[in-house]
Amino acid sequence: MLKYNFNESNLDIYRNYLKNIDGKDNKDIDLEYMIISDPQFLTCIKNNCVESWKYLKKSMKIPPTLLIDSFISKTNKHIDLIQPTYQRRKKNKIHCYFCPEKLCDNMEDKIKFLEIKCNCNKIYTHIKCGNDFILKNAQCDVCKEYYDVNQYCSSLRSILIM
Ligand SMILES: [Zn+2]
Ligand SMILES: [Zn+2]
After folding, report:
1. Do 145 and 99 reside in the same domain of the chain?
2. Residue 137 alpha carbon to ligand 2 centre in Å
3. Ligand nearest to the CA of 100
4. Residue 122 — φ and ψ, nearest 5°?
5. Is residue 19, in this structure, part of any structural domain at all?
6. 127 lies in which domain range?
7. Is residue 4 part of a domain?
8. What residues have a C-beta under 5 A from ligand 1, the ion?
């Protein structure tokens, strides 16, 4: 069986390998090192699950079948398929067009707000923010249309459906 301690670092394992070479016929030692330096093999050592070993048997070019079988026979660990957890989607607050304050928490909130329309744009703002804007800008710079201003006390959704 393997004479390596897998709690050691890869470098230490390699140093042990060098120590084991004594100038004689090193085929076995070389082969052993080739196997244990395979990253897939090392992952299997770490996981030590039946499924990982079985997969390794199929995926390695020259799988050390007897060795893998002996690992399989000694472990009773199986891969746990963990159900993925999803993060709850954050509700996005809806912001006023002109200031960083929220206009409402969601489209269903009943709120007081201004709708300012022209040919090219439609914006929703706090009443004060919208009025301040309209006082300075009666016309749209882009389409030259006079703004159509409506005050609502309802949800944004009910306006957007209209
Ligand atoms: Zn505002
Ligand atoms: Zn416009």
Report:
1. yes
2. 11
3. 1
4. -145, 120
5. yes
6. 94-161
7. no
8. 96, 98-99, 126, 129
